[in-house]
Design brief:
By secondary structure, the protein is α/β, with parallel strands linked by helices. 31% of the residues lie in helices and 21% in strands. The protein has a single domain, classed as 3-Layer(aba) Sandwich (Alpha/beta knot), CATH 3.40.1280.10.
């Protein structure tokens, strides 16, 4: 057994294929959060990011700062509204899962997932609209135990994405 830990500091060759997961970003205010989510999507080999409403879309300088080049490596399209994106994906047989801390939500690990799946992440201050909940197949959350009732949207997206990938394997 060795006591040496080798840190991998360089980029590696991309594995082929993407996970059948789409991240829908509904009116996110922070370009930095969006850039962080692009980084997540690249390292997790997510199929696509869909930006909706006033969520920034590449190319954008603040997004690019946190995305660190991943905004050029992840497929992205923009819809005027999340409702339009959801209706489009439903026609392609995606399961739609709204992710929000609300009373009727189940922890992400208790929500049955059917792939392909699209997760909807809402505005940092206002969350997801009632119309989006009505069109969703499930509502998931990350349980919170502290005083605050929410987690940063990019951090939430990471937990949800890794949870979904884990369940695929």
């Amino acid at each position: 057994m060795t006591n040496t830990i080798q840190v991998i500091s360089e980029d590696r060759d991309r594995q082929s294929g993407n996970h059948p997961i789409i991240l829908i970003l509904d009116n996110l205010r922070s370009a930095y959060n969006v850039g962080n989510i692009f980084r997540l999507a690249e390292v997790c080999r997510i199929e696509e990011i869909i930006t909706c409403g006033y969520t920034v879309t590449p190319p954008h300088p603040k997004l690019a700062k946190t995305a660190r080049g991943c905004d050029k490596r992840v497929s992205c399209r923009q819809f005027e509204s999340s409702l339009d994106a959801i209706l489009f994906l439903k026609k392609k047989h995606y399961q739609i899962v709204a992710v929000e801390t609300v009373a009727n939500a189940f922890p992400i690990w208790d929500v049955p997932l059917h792939f392909p799946v699209a997760f909807v992440f809402g505005n940092e201050a206002h969350g997801i609209s009632k119309r989006i909940f009505e069109q969703s197949d499930a509502v998931a959350c990350l349980p919170v135990f502290g005083f605050k009732n929410s987690l940063n949207v990019a951090n939430c997206a990471a937990v949800v994405t890794y949870s979904a990938i884990h369940r695929m394997t």
